[in-house]
């Protein structure tokens, strides 16, 4: 049984290498759970490379937008490379202001899905599907799937402490705090539970009041 499991994992890793032209660190970590890795690879391959309404460069740029909300430099770099390989306009990588208005219109829904997904409602969808530079409904669905997939993947990357690939270069998207944790892999010295609890309390007090709409949904 163990030999069969190792064989299946080996086959999955080969498939991942053929799909991505690399065996990235995320895949290697997930390799410890081959059943999950199998589903993950098939899902990600389909939403990024399978049939769908969005152009391939749009798909990878939306992935960059999602990773940017969580300042996940690992995924930002990985998707930048994929974006360029798909013939994406390098000017877009200077920032959202350099992208077509259609992509810029995803800013609000990206922010909501990343931090307060329960606030998403039909008005946000309608806003995207009407007016100039509008999205078709199928494009919106595809974009939302990409956003939530990469929001979740950011949590996996940060939670597992996945390191940068060797060919990645430092990015300006990473905050100093994130850079310190990423580069050293060590927790901040001298921080105990009481200190962390106090910080959480302070952050809670600084958080803006819930809107009437949000209170109704909680």
Share of β-strand residues: under 5%
> What is the molecular shape?
globular
Please tell me the total number of domains. Answer: 2
> In terms of per-residue confidence, which ranges show pLDDT below 50 for 5 or more consecutive residues?
172-191
Summarize the main sheet: none
The SS-based structural class is mainly alpha
Helix-strand pattern: HHHHHHHHHHHH
Relative helix content: 55-70%
Strand tally is 0
* Helix segment tally: 12
User: Mean of the pLDDT scores?
Assistant: 79
Examine the secondary-structure arrangement and name the CATH architecture of the largest domain.
Up-down Bundle
Q: Give the C-alpha Rg.
A: 19 Å
CATH topology of the largest domain: AhpD-like
Question: How far from one another are the termini?
Answer: 47 Å
CATH C-level class of the largest domain: Mainly Alpha
Family: Belongs to the sestrin family.
Protein name: Sestrin
Catalytic activity: a hydroperoxide + L-cysteinyl-[protein] = S-hydroxy-L-cysteinyl-[protein] + an alcohol
InterPro entries: AhpD-like, Sestrin
Please, could you describe this protein's structure?
This protein has 2 domains: 1-51; 54-166, AhpD-like (Up-down Bundle). Helix content is 65%, strand content 0%. The protein has helices spanning 2-20, 25-30, 34-49, 56-69, 73-85, 101-104, 107-115, 122-129, 137-160, 176-184, 193-206, 212-217. The chain is mainly alpha-helical and 218 residues long. Helix 4 (56-69) packs across helix 9. The protein is built from 12 helices and no strands. The protein is globular.
